[in-house]
């Protein structure tokens, strides 16, 4: 048993016992998640203390990875308002709620597929900050992609023949009124 495991096990049973039972998460699953991040290397005293303090988030993440439905709703409940606040501070926009919903959907899909989802969360970092960084990266990627598409559209418009006089179609109702 590694030096960091004993404090994690104590914190698990002391702080997260009922919560983990409601999520169906075992201490062994939590330890396996932490081990998978650094299987051979140990953690410093500070890192071990940080992991121990994040035991509730660790249980929540493991519950999501194990597809416990209440885990996803609890994760959203705890972090959506934080993400909305962070997104509005970082980049205010009218479609922030839509971006956050897309983020949750993409994160859940990635977690189910096992690709860079919640499995990659490191409990040495606060979960809310990790989620915000993922969200910011997704929003930035979306903006870059849409600006590249917009640039291609503008170039296509420049290559079209432009008529000197604007022409409009006449609608029958407008023609009848005139």
What features would you describe in this structure?
- With 178 residues, this protein is mostly helical.
- The protein has one domain (5-148).
- It is 72% helix and 0% strand.
- The longest helix is centred in the C-terminal third of the chain and has 33 residues, at 127-159.
- It starts with a helix and ends with a helix.
- The relative contact order is 0.10.
Q: Roughly how much helix do the residues carry, as a percent range? A: over 70%
Strand element count: 0
Structural class call reads mainly alpha
Shape: elongated
Poorly predicted spans: none
Q: Output the radius of gyration.
A: 25 Å
**Count of separate structural domains:** 1
Counting DSSP H or I runs of 4 or more residues, the number of helices is 9
Give the CA-CA distance, first to last residue: 89 Å
